[in-house]
Amino acid sequence: MNIAEKDTYKTIEIAKGDTLYKEKGSKFIGFVFPISSEEDVKELIGELKKKHHTARHWCYAWQLGIEEVRYRVNDDGEPNNSAGQPIYGQILSNELTNVLVVVVRYFGGTKLGVGGLITAYKTAAKIILDEAVIVEKTINIEFQLIFEYQHMNKVMRIIKENNLDILNQKMELNCDFLISVRKKNAKKVKKYFEDLRCLKIKQI
Hints:
The chain has five helices and eleven strands.
């Protein structure tokens, strides 16, 4: 099933690193990071280049987004499609998004050839992803509810019956709630609130 057709997605919550794969003297060190923007990628790659400043290559792949996915691969001086693409293949096979996988290579003096490089980068990426804790999250939609305090019980009943999360609330004469609803339930929940006819509901 395409990621866009689901209301869940897989990612990792905690960075993991320093897994080692060796091939003919070369060392391939794997890292995986949760990311939320391309700025995260630049920052994390910069940190790894400082930490492993004597390495030869810092090859990586990332994927961002849940319903509109974007990604990038980088061979960082290795032959075309011998590093970034095999790393990205492991992101895809684990069905992950909002994730960056980097494999740092220390050259061991023996050339591996394109086939050898593909295997090495793929294996290093697989090892780090096998060690990472993968979590499944729901795609949620946020709604703003505006209503008079006297209708609080009616609103709270719907919230409790549907196990909705209140992200923010202001309770005065006019109440203002920000709620989070799982995507697959959003239409149904929105109709429950609209049927009350005592509040304004707006998707954020």
